[in-house]
Amino acid sequence: MAKIRIKQGSNEIEIDSRDFYVDNDSVADVIASLKQLLNERPQTDVMNSLDNAEFHEPEFSSPSTIAVDDIKNKLRILAKDSFFDQPKTVGETVAQMSEYGWSASPFDVSVALTKMAFNKEFLKNTTDQRNQYISKEALLTN
Predict the structure, then answer these.
(1) Is the distance from CB of 99 to CB of 81 less than 8 angstroms?
(2) CA distance linking residue 75 with residue 78, whole number of Å
(3) What secondary structure letter does DSSP report for 68?
(4) Angle CA(17)–CA(23)–CA(26) in degrees, nearest 5?
(5) Which pLDDT score is estimated for 32?
(6) What are the distances in angstroms from CA 108 to CA 9, 20, 21, 31, 66?
(7) Which CATH architecture has domain 64-141?
(8) Are strands 102-103 and 64-65 parallel, antiparallel or unpaired?
(9) Which of 10, 79, 110, 129 lies 20 to 30 Å (CA to CA) from residue 31?
(10) Which is higher by pLDDT, 51 or 107?
(11) Rounded to an integer, what distance in angstroms lies between the CA atom of residue 127 and that of residue 112?
């Protein structure tokens, strides 16, 4: 996952690539466009003008609660971002979700991970009486 952070005076925008793809050929255009928007409008207007923009700064704001039905989609995003390339516990997963700005109960995350393991989206391993989950693709590529 790549991040683009642009500061212009007191305004700052950070975008990470979990939601879109930026390659080496297009990154300069993306940065130039964002700088232009920062110069033209206050930061809140810039962020409101971007489709599906999420505001989350873990050190300044609380994560927003996600619906139980949306937990699997969020877990798939974490998997796509290589979070599950190494075995992870439910607690580690809940903490990572919080870093992304999402809040869900450990029980709901545990249920979702268990169902996804049952459906072979993840592999489940128990060590020292703790369940750990790893991406199936991570094991196939190693």
Answers:
(1) no
(2) 5
(3) G
(4) 105
(5) 77
(6) 42, 27, 30, 38, 10
(7) Orthogonal Bundle (1.10)
(8) parallel
(9) 79
(10) 107
(11) 19
Task: Give the phi and the psi of residue 126 in degrees, each rounded to 5.
Answer: -115, 120
Whether the model pTM is above 0.85: no
Q: Where are the domains of the chain?
A: 3-49, 64-141
Among 20-29, 53-62, 72-81, 82-91, name the one with the lowest average pLDDT: 53-62
Burial 29-64 (b: 16+ CB within 10 A, else e): eebeebeebbeeeeeeebeeeeeeeeeeeeeeeebe
Question: How far is it, in rounded angstroms, from Cα 26 to Cα 65?
Answer: 34
The pLDDT tens digits of the residues spanning 15-32 come to 665 555 666 677 677 777
pLDDT more than 90, % of the chain: 38
Strands 122-127 and 130-135: antiparallel
